[in-house]
Design goal:
flat; about 300 residues; single chain; mainly alpha
Length: about 300
């Protein structure tokens, strides 16, 4: 066997030039330069993202911070121009809020109506979501869509006929009437979220309980309820916030005896003046229940809002 070395030299080829490109040795300086470029690019991206999030955070929290500062100012500091950011804080506005009936009565009414509506939603929505998820019957999807459509329709579209019905049956200016009306806000959210969670749970869990002699109620109480607890906590938290912040329904259906916080704050607006300080303090206090409820359900929110959204 012979090798034509002269032919190889004649064609300009050599052992080094014929090696594949991937086998060549990479220059360490080029590798470090490429890594430095990638690092600078990542730092630039992170900087832009952090800057955008910071701007959005300031935009979202600025009204809340402004109202909180107003609640600590004297009347002359509130209307001062240019605005005062350095002032002597006072708690007189909070004292007026907690000692006067303009705020405490609507605040207690809001607690009664919101908690009552959540309890009724839980009693109605939990078995409804289970039935829609586990049973097959005619018109199931129509019923589910009908419940969801309660959130599609604007409240202004249904408030007038609802008021006429409540007026005829004596439910205006009544706690029960507001609790029933709030189901338009809370029930669709809870039913559709829990239906998704229950559908994602395998039916073999209930079949295993049935093999051991348990009933469907036993399987739901001891097995399914614990598994859907994250979704239940998230749905109740969102329902609480929506019910607590509802404005149109109580504006029309409530009265002097059942006025809630969203409409009660308007009492600080009179014909001749506006009590900016007490109104700002009442606004700050009205945010506390929602924040406390969210903190209480915080460990359920992340798992509850993400679980059940991806099937498979």
């Amino acid at each position: 066997m012979t090798v034509d070395l002269e032919g190889q030299v004649a064609t300009g080829g050599s052992a080094d030039t014929q090696r594949p490109t991937s086998a060549r040795t990479v220059d360490p300086r080029q590798h470090l330069a490429a890594r430095a470029r990638r690092r600078r690019k990542n730092i630039a991206k992170h900087t832009v993202v952090i800057a955008l999030l910071s701007i959005w955070t300031v935009f979202a929290l600025a009204p809340i911070v402004w109202i909180f500062l107003m609640s600590l100012k004297l009347p002359q500091d509130i209307v001062a121009y240019p605005p005062k950011f350095v002032f002597t804080p006072t708690l007189a506005n909070y004292a007026d809020v907690f000692t006067g009936p303009e705020f405490m009565t609507p605040f207690l009414n809001s607690l009664i109506v919101t908690v009552g509506s959540l309890l009724l939603t839980l009693v109605i929505g939990l078995p409804t979501a289970y039935a829609l998820a586990r049973f097959s019957f005619r018109g199931k999807e129509n019923i589910a869509f009908g419940i969801l459509s309660l959130r599609f329709a604007p409240e202004l579209l249904i408030i007038l006929p609802l008021y006429l019905v409540f007026q005829n049956v004596g439910l205006t200016d009544n706690y029960l009437g507001l609790i029933l009306a709030y189901q338009l806000v809370t029930l669709p959210m809870l039913v559709w979220m829990l239906r998704s969670f229950i559908e994602d749970l395998p039916t073999e869990l209930e079949e295993a309980v049935a093999v051991d002699g348990g009933t469907r109620w036993t399987a739901f109480r001891h097995v399914l309820f614990r598994l859907i607890a994250p979704g239940l906590g998230a749905a109740l938290m969102l329902s609480f916030i929506w019910a607590w912040n509802s404005y149109t329904l109580p504006l029309v259906l409530s009265g002097r005896n059942t006025q809630v916080i969203t409409t009660g704050i308007q009492q600080y607006i009179s014909f001749q003046s506006i009590d900016w300080g007490p109104m700002a303090a009442a606004t700050v206090v009205s945010m506390v229940p929602g924040i406390l409820f969210a903190l209480f359900a915080l460990r359920w929110i992340v798992g509850g809002l993400t679980a059940g959204t991806v099937k498979g």
